[in-house]
Amino acid sequence: MIENISFEYPYAFVILLIFIICSIFCKQKSTAIYFPNVALLKKASLKSSFLTNLLKFLIILTLSIALASPIKEDTIELKNDKGYEISLILDASGSMSEYNKFDIVKGIVEDFVDKRLHDKLALSIFADFAYVAIPLTYDKKSIKRLLSRIEVGIAGEQRTALYEALFLSSNLFKTSKSKEKIAILLTDGVDNTDSIPLNVAINTAKKYGIKVYTIGVGRAGDFNPIVLKEIADQTGGKYFQATSIQELKQIYDLIDSLEKSEIKADKYIKKSYYFQYILILSLFFMMLYLYAINRKQNVLF
Q: How far is it, in rounded angstroms, from Cα 135 to Cα 121?
């Protein structure tokens, strides 16, 4: 606690310096009075003078400290969280089991989730059909826990409901008031369900102001880059292609840096004052000083 104490008006200690200088160079001249038993009286007087001088010093010291106003400052930081709302859309169709692609993607997405401290996130999965696994939430632990349990085939293995996934995910933002809404759609295939037309999916995303980043993973021909680029271009996002683990990781890192939340914090300084305790101590020394003066006068007379 003492380490955090500072003084609001440190120049008040000049009073103590003046007192010390005056005590040395401004000695008071007194009238000489002669008594019998001078040696004994002188001895008693020296003891009494030392005590009164010490008490005077302690009074000036404590008053100087009180005037300097000892305080303890604590910085209180209030964060004004205005993060993004992000929908993570993952392809879990049968082809994602090749070369362990789905498990690799899950690991990279988990790292991405960890970095988005102040954002609301949602998770959608698609294969034969699309479904929202977790709606928009600040609960990152729930997203990571569910993500670790999702496996290829959980929504079927034969088909790829890509447009349906984008449509359902976009509807998560229907009541959103956030200014920053994005979706990250990852796939290694092409839509072959015809459940939702492409233009309907894109227009829904545009309607709610969602910027869609699309990622095609795998070999050339596995997915349709023209469609993924169209989705990204029309919604203000970007299209990426990943043919390796390193490329995929770099893509998520790039999206993280492009869509970084600017979290503002208001700082307040709380001041705790302690001068009143020093004043009480000073009053105590004053009482002792008055008692010592009266006692000294009684001894002399």
A: 7
CATH placement of domain 82-262: 3.40.50.410
Listed by start position, the domains of the chain span 2-75+268-300, 82-262
d(CA 128, CA 30): 108
Confidence tier at 113 by pLDDT (50, 70, 90): very high
Question: Based on the number of CB atoms within 10 Å of its own CB, is 228 exposed (0-12), middle (13-18) or buried (19 or more)?
Answer: buried
Q: What is the pLDDT of residues 151-186, one digit of tens each?
A: 998 998 889 999 999 999 999 999 988 888 999 999
